[in-house]
Amino acid sequence: MLELRDVNASIGIIPILRNLDFFIGAGETVALIGRNGAGKTTLLRTIMGFTKITGEIRFDGRPIGAMPPPARPGLGIGYAPEDRRLFSAFTVEENILLPAQAARLSAEETKRRLDRAYRILPELREMAGRPAGNVSGGQGKMVALARALMLGTKLVMLDEPFQGLAPALAQRYAEALRALRDADRSVTLIITESNPALLRGFADRTLVIERGEVAEGALEPETTPA
Amino acid sequence: MNLTIFLLALFDGIAYAALVFIVALGLTLIFGVMRILNVAHGSLYAIGAYATVALTGFFLSLGLAPALSFPLMLVAAILVGILLGGPIEWLLLRRIYDKPEVLQLLVTFAVFMILEDVQRLVWGTQPYFEARALQALGNVTVFGVTYTVYQLILLPAVALVLLLGLRFFLRRTILGKLITATTEDREAAQSIGIDADKVFLLTFIVGAALGGLGGALASPTTSILPGMGADMIVLSFAVVATAGLGQIEGAALTALMIGLGRSFAVYVWPEVAVLVPYLIMVLVLLVRPEGLFGSPAARKI
């Protein structure tokens, strides 16, 4: 599904990621664990095409390393950045619809995908008409997830979705992710997190990123406090 | 100041503000979306005027009605947008978006210098007059003051239609929404599949066409001569900076303020009339460095 072979990524002239070499299969839920500054966000941005790379990235067997960033979501990739990055000029629903409009999906297909997003995050229906600049941080994360789901039919990448969420909202967000899981087993999920405890029991695989290098990890390190 | 003079100053100011606003609209649209201050915008204005005069002269000499001047203005503006704006973005600006801002200023300034000479090369240094569009619409008398319909009604109407039309386009149409999203956050826009390169090209073409349209509409009211582009870029920059860079509605109000300030100064204190726009700009920027309607984060220069 997603394959990185010998990938080095840099921003400007500064190398950030080194020797990335891993494969993620269709339907896997991967926790990408690492401290702040370890390179989690850069890895997701690299998959989206925003860094300079050497090496090879394949998506569904197809090399995408040279593909310009705006062409990538159309392959079935949804990405919710860490700081939400909603467009404040628009309402919640307009934000969610934008990816479908950029990809020129038909009206029926857009409606089908919007319904799918609302089934997974029903609370967004009630705030559909609100300006995106007026929703709380936690609600904004839900909107960003819904927006990522519009094109994310194969791969959904969430950058620190739980960070800054109040416990009740974090629980609600985790429920939504489970609903997404249950609705479509073939979607691959990559979720970054600095606190591995939050993804325990949810991810079926853990990648640990440290100083720009990725290694397979265990989700429940023995030293985790109770 | 009696009523007649007051009305004259008022009408002068409105007509002038409408023209300046149309040019400033293109400048602020380009800045708002692309974060590029396009110094060559003044040349696009001048070439819009020259092209209109050339097209009108040619077609009216064939015996066609003067009313044809109006669609020809539109044609001139579109030609400026596509034939000049397109290549400027595609061949030059696209290479320097992630380079330091000073380079963007230098490159657009170089384009400005080149286009100034191209104008002299193509149209020479003799002034042109082509007022048949102005005459075609006749005059209107308001409280004893006679003024041209073209300047008092057509120009403000066009400015208003452009303001409302651009607002509607950016907020309500799909293409406009993609542009607005790119304006707010280029990377976030790209990561939901918006082709920012295409958005930039389109924005620059539209912005350049607005500059050209300003020149086309100005052409019947002024003599077309070398240097007119330099005057206009400085003035429209004053409007855009006073309003806050990238602020479309703000530019409309500021253009009106600067236009009226200048026209009243002409009657009250003519010695400083040409200075008034810049005095207003300096006063505003001293109090609000981000401009009347700008937010501090949006400022770049």
Automatic annotation (TrEMBL), chain A:
- Tell me which domain of life the UniProt entry assigns to the organism this sequence originates from: Bacteria
Q: What PROSITE patterns does the record point to?
A: ABC_TRANSPORTER_2 (PS50893)
Molecular function terms from GO: ATP binding
Q: Name one Pfam family in it.
A: ABC_tran
Domain ABC transporter stretches: 2-226
Mind telling me which SMART domains this protein's record contains? AAA
Q: Could you say which protein family the record assigns here?
A: Belongs to the ABC transporter superfamily.
Name listed for the protein in its UniProt record: Branched-chain amino acid transport system ATP-binding protein
Q: Which organism is it from?
A: Limimaricola variabilis
Q: What is the lineage of its organism?
A: Bacteria, Pseudomonadati, Pseudomonadota, Alphaproteobacteria, Rhodobacterales
From TrEMBL, chain B:
Keyword rRNA-binding appears in the UniProt entry = no
Compartment(s) where it occurs, according to its Swiss-Prot or TrEMBL record: Cell membrane
How is it placed in the membrane, per its record? Multi-pass membrane protein
Q: Does the keyword Transmembrane helix apply?
A: yes
Instruction: Please list every transmembrane segment annotated in the UniProt record, as residue ranges.
Output: 6-32, 44-64, 70-93, 105-123, 149-170, 199-218, 266-287
Question: Could you tell me the keywords of this UniProt record?
Answer: Amino-acid transport, Cell membrane, Membrane, Transmembrane, Transmembrane helix, Transport
Record InterPro entries: ABC_transp_permease, BCAA_transport_permease
* UniProt similarity note: Belongs to the binding-protein-dependent transport system permease family. LivHM subfamily.
Descriptive protein name: Branched-chain amino acid transport system permease protein
